[in-house]
Write a structure and sequence with these properties.
The structure is a homodimer. Chain A is of the alpha/beta class. In chain A, 46% of the residues lie in helices and 16% in strands.
Chain lengths: 385, 385
């Protein structure tokens, strides 16, 4: 029996993780669930999965949660610090970090430092603090299992292989909803258009990241830290059908790929069941039905965010954290209607160029950069508003 | 330093194996080379690779070979028995069996029984005597490394995986030169048309097998013995570009594939360097250049040989050996102009139905079936000629 904690249990990754766990009642037991503020869904999850602890990040909602639950055996807490305490709970064997954005970084660090393995959907953890996290993994002898479909694909392709034999990794991306849209029309993109992903059903933040292709840029940085490869050995290929989830090319020119229908439940389940593939009854990939898979190079002119991510990775230090924090703010601003879609890369570039660069930051310096950047963008937006 | 023996060094697989070995002079030393009768090429190979032993299968050519070599340190022998003796030479760490057709089976058995690992390009060994070979591998603690691009792909996809997690394997095939040709026109197919494979540069026998798709049928039987899977867990998908060389679907719906340009040197090198991928300077796969990969179900009506192979596998015993021997004869007859292309499956079916079936044959019984079948087809052809 594996004890599982889920950070962000009411979000897209969290609910799918619970769907997987529900199918293996003999294998997994839930130690804790956390939500930002979705009381209704959390209450249902508590009834079904009977976790020992729950935490609601929005402190002011704790009384409502207690009212909704009535008499219950579950331990209830609230607020950011309580969430970080749960992340550090070492009764847990594996924590699924399904938090969204930079807020997911510190819980990852808490879990690893407590000796708990992390199934990481929150790519921002590695984007912002990959070097620090890799050090902590070594110190505490803990493991990080990628949940992103691309990184799960690479991880699966590398099973049983010697890392020294890797020539490069190839991250595939659908190209998002605007792959074929002329750049001249980007200024008129609406929120509704940007939220319509052609293949994947994901949360709002990551769906916008997919539309700007920043998602792919962040994945390059994530891949760098997960697989210990330089930027020059990490390529992006656009593959609109999202069937090949990523690939590894070896020194002899042999390429391994992992494929599947675009369903996050496969990488989520694999992170839980690794190194095994447990049975699942969901729909199977049938390539004869799909008929064709296509591939093209990404348009770096249209999707400047990709270029920004490679530059930040090359620069190192606080640059990727600055990029990520600026992106969190810019995406939120776009979703709130505060900025148009095509302004996102410009805002990121400006924010990165204006932050106080530190070539060897500790976690406090990274958090400081994050605060600085948030303030910079919010100030800028309030001036232009 | 690994000592290598090559059975069929002047053939397509043999010459490509030597190309690979030439790039790693520190890693491999050649113990022996054998040829059917290509003295000119063998002499060149002896000069470059300096093997300890050579054998020419056509006994009557030994004097010519001795003349061509003059004074030399290499041990020369000739004839089938001498070839079998070399196959059993246990100074060798790995033998590459690049022989063509059923004649390759006995050398495989000799090598395994001498405790020598075999890199197997000769799929007929497993098609005819898979059960016997698997027993011998266990008894002698030897290993079989697939060289066929499809089986090498599956082998690579299974690296580090638990076989219990396999749901099925998917063998890809180009569909050969007649994939889109209407069945009504099959009776007019010429030898030249059948020898033109769209993607792979291979020997004549295997190129015809590719045109009838019997090659894919034999590969299903080969896969059954290599990967210990029932016929129902082995699928064929037609993939005209020959970029995905085969796939494995796991219990969770995750699919792994191995890809590369259609170049036998990759699987040949991997069989030599396993478990590592050593550097190679040949051309790399670039999916953005290839643009699209397509997939379709095989047309079992047009390519009846596939159906015959599944039936032989289900029937077991001597049925696959009979199928294989009949196919060796039928392909030779087609190449000699004795039968038209579209008659190949009919001849196979008749030969299988008329052989003396044995449900649990030993190696002598298999060889007896082979002789019977050859005689049956030759008699039949001399009557109709």
């Amino acid at each position: 029996m594996k004890n599982i904690g889920i950070l962000g249990s009411t979000g897209s990754i969290g609910t799918q993780t619970l769907e997987v766990i529900r199918r293996f009642p003999e294998e997994y037991s839930l130690t804790y669930l956390t939500t930002n503020g979705n009381i209704e869904l959390l209450v249902k999850q508590i009834e079904i999965f009977k976790p020992e602890y729950v935490c609601i990040a929005r402190e002011e909602l704790e009384p409502d949660l207690r009212d909704a639950l009535g008499n219950t055996a579950v331990h209830i807490s609230s607020g950011r610090n309580a969430l970080l305490d749960l992340a550090a709970n070492n009764e847990v064997d594996l924590v699924m970090n399904g938090l969204v954005g930079g807020a997911g970084m510190e819980p990852t660090i808490k879990a690893i430092s407590a000796g708990v393995d992390v199934a990481l959907s929150n790519k921002e953890s590695l984007v912002m603090a990959g070097g620090i996290i890799n050090n902590l993994l070594q110190i505490h002898g803990t493991q990080l299992f990628p949940v992103d479909s691309e990184h799960s694909a690479i991880w699966q392709c590398l099973t049983g292989e010697d890392h020294a034999d890797i020539k490069k990794i190839i991250l595939t991306g659908s190209g998002g909803p605007f792959r074929t849209k002329p750049i001249e029309t980007f200024e008129h993109i609406t929120k509704e258009e940007a939220l319509k992903h052609p293949n994947w059903d994901m949360g709002a933040k990551i769906t916008i990241d997919s539309a700007t292709m920043m998602n792919k840029g962040l994945e390059v940085i994530e891949a760098h830290w997960l697989f210990h490869l330089p930027a020059s050995a990490i390529e992006i290929v656009v593959h609109p059908q999202s069937i090949i989830h990523s690939m590894v090319e070896f020194a002899d020119g042999s390429v391994k790929a992992q494929l599947g229908l675009p369903d996050m439940k496969i990488p989520i389940q694999y992170a839980l069941t690794y190194p095994h593939h447990l049975p699942a009854d969901w729909e199977r990939l049938d390539l004869t039905q799909i008929g064709e898979l296509t591939f093209e190079s990404p348009d770096l002119n249209k999707f400047h965010c990709i270029q920004l991510a490679y530059e930040a990775l090359e620069k190192g230090g606080t640059a990727p954290a600055a990029l990520n924090s600026a992106n969190d703010e810019a995406v939120a601003a776009f979703l709130n209607g505060a900025i148009p879609f095509h302004q996102i890369p410009n805002i990121l570039e400006e924010a990165i160029n204006n932050h106080e660069f530190d070539s060897d930051p500790d976690i406090l310096a990274i958090q400081e950069v994050s605060t600085q950047i948030s303030k910079f963008i919010q100030d800028k937006l309030s001036v232009t508003a």
